[in-house]
């Protein structure tokens, strides 16, 4: 198994490792051949079931757009109102599990074998991890979410005729108290962008890295469940797991691409008067997907790595600019105050039961957890691909804690600046704008607004490209049975398909449709992640440390 794994682009363990002895060979269920000059090497039936199911879904959304829009409009609130407790409980379990691994003796296990060395420097590793993990979301929500939670907290609780709350304030709000509204708003934002999402990513990435680099199994989601299901993971048990991973990844990416297109459209309208609407967004998705194809052809090091480092450099420059020209001292003190507020409010924000703030816990948190979980196969496999050679403890700390702190800093700089404009200057442009416009309205009040807004649009677009490219790489690996060197046309196919799904969902119901599909695919995959925690423990127990 080890030799076969190495032949498919996954290196054999360096030094001592508990390789699993299985008769399964990577690609044994694959269909290989070519159609003219185009070669293919696809897993049967994962590729077929995934591809055909998604094409039928796209056909339905195109042929019956009104019915599809009504269905999507019903689906999201139906799932979040029924399963919000499940999403919140699972998120808490993932965070606690990661902290347990950090302090446990298994933290000494090295991914890739006892003598493995890291493939990438910390700089390159963090850049790829971040650009793939949260790029578009940070651009879209960096101003809009802190501002939204601040405004609703300041407004306080409001009740409808039936006695149910109609406000969107987190917890009980902080009616009329501006300072506490800022603290609660930032805590509610950090809760969605801190430990919980990165714990979700860390679990999937760790399981994939452990069972591929140490156990010699294919780099695909099913491999993590070998300790639970044994040889059955190569049959329909594993097929179902991988198909769910493809669905979750594709719709999670489509949602992010939809957010990116909406925000880029809003920014282009603000700067150059480009019309806002579905036609422009379709053109944007099509054009950026074409750019992503170039990155796909260039490969991981020549495409994603280069673009990720470029984007991280641009994002860092924009962050430093806003920090220096904005209310610098307030931002710095606000960073630490927000962290303290996060610790203070975390127990209440993460409570799965007895919540009275249904709009926040269901409309925000449950959606976010489903979104992160739907992204987890994509981000997790991508992180696994670039994390060989790290110890489990180093891996968890770097993937969980450091990105969480960077997210807090990002929200403190952008969200804190926008809130300061309201509280100190009385400027409500960002507060009153649509979600996709809030970033640009905030930048309008700072020097060099046209330049920084253009940089913001550029960041959204390049994050868009890296997400599409990375997602294509991951879906192609899953649907090729764990092969990481499958024919290039397959990756091109999935790259085009991601853009097509994003376009169809935008036309068939807008962002509501995108969010509905994330919720519906994230729900079953949450069960997969919970089982994955047990599988990781079983796998680590046999490893040398």
From TrEMBL:
The chain crosses the membrane at residues 46-65, 85-103, 124-143, 190-213, 233-262, 282-300, 312-336, 366-384, 396-419, 446-465, 492-512, 518-537. Its main location: membrane. Keywords: Cell membrane, Membrane, Transmembrane, Transmembrane helix, Transport. The keyword Transmembrane helix applies. It holds the Pfam family BCCT. It is found in: Cell membrane. InterPro entries: BCCT_transptr (IPR000060). Coiled coil: none annotated. It is a multi-pass membrane protein. PANTHER family: HIGH-AFFINITY CHOLINE TRANSPORT PROTEIN, HIGH-AFFINITY CHOLINE TRANSPORT PROTEIN-RELATED. Belongs to the BCCT transporter (TC 2.A.15) family. This is Transporter, BCCT family. It comes from Phaeobacter inhibens. The lineage of its organism: Bacteria, Pseudomonadati, Pseudomonadota, Alphaproteobacteria, Rhodobacterales.
């Amino acid at each position: 198994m080890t030799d076969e794994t190495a032949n498919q682009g996954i290196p054999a363990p360096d030094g001592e490792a508990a390789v699993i002895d299985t008769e399964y060979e990577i690609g044994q269920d694959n269909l290989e051949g070519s159609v003219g000059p185009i070669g293919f090497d696809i897993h049967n039936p994962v590729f077929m079931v995934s591809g055909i199911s998604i094409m039928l879904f796209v056909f339905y959304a195109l042929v019956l757009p009104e019915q599809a829009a009504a269905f999507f409009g019903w689906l999201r609130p139906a799932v979040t109102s029924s399963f919000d407790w499940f999403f919140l409980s699972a998120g808490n379990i993932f965070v606690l599990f990661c902290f347990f691994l950090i302090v446990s003796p298994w933290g000494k296990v090295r991914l890739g074998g006892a003598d493995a060395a890291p493939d990438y420097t910390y700089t390159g590793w963090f850049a790829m991890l971040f650009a793939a993990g949260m790029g578009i979301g940070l651009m879209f929500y960096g101003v809009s979410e802190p501002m939204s939670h601040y405004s609703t907290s300041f407004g306080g609780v409001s009740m409808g005729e039936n006695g149910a709350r109609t406000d969107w304030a987190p917890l009980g709000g902080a009616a009329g108290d501006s300072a506490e509204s800022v603290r609660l708003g930032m805590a509610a934002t950090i809760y969605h962008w801190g430990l919980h999402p990165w714990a979700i990513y860390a679990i999937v990435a760790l399981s994939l890295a452990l069972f591929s680099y140490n156990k010699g199994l294919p780099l695909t989601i099913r491999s993590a469940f070998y300790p639970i299901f044994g040889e059955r993971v190569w049959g329909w048990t594993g097929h179902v797991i991988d198909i769910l991973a493809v669905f979750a990844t594709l719709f999670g990416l489509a949602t992010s691409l939809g957010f990116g297109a909406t925000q880029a459209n809003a920014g282009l309208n603000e700067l150059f008067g480009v019309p806002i609407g579905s036609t422009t967004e379709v053109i944007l998705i099509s054009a950026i997907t074409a750019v992503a194809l170039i990155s796909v052809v260039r490969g991981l090091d020549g495409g994603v790595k280069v673009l990720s480092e470029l984007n991280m450099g641009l994002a860092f420059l924009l962050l430093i600019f806003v920090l220096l020209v904005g209310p610098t001292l307030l931002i710095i003190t606000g960073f630490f105050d927000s962290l303290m507020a996060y610790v203070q409010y975390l127990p209440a924000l993460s409570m799965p039961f007895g919540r009275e703030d249904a709009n926040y816990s269901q409309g925000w948190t449950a959606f976010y957890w489903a979104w992160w979980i739907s992204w987890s196969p994509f981000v997790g496999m991508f992180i696994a691909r670039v994390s060989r050679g790290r110890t489990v403890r180093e891996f968890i700390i770097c993937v969980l804690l450091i990105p969480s702190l960077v997210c807090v800093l990002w929200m403190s700089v952008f969200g804190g600046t926008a809130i300061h404009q309201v509280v100190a200057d009385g400027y409500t442009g960002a507060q009153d704008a649509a979600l996709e416009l809030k970033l640009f309205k905030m930048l309008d009040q700072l020097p060099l607004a046209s330049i920084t807004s253009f940089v913001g649009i550029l960041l959204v677009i390049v994050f868009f490209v890296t997400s599409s490219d990375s997602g294509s790489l991951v879906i192609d690996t899953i649907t090729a049975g764990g092969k990481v060197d499958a024919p290039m046309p397959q990756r091109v196919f999935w790259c085009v398909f991601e853009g097509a799904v994003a376009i169809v969902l935008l036309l068939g119901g807008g962002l509501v449709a995108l969010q509905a599909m994330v919720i519906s695919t994230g729900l079953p995959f949450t069960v997969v992640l919970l089982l994955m925690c047990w599988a990781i423990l079983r796998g680590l127990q046999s490893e040398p440390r």
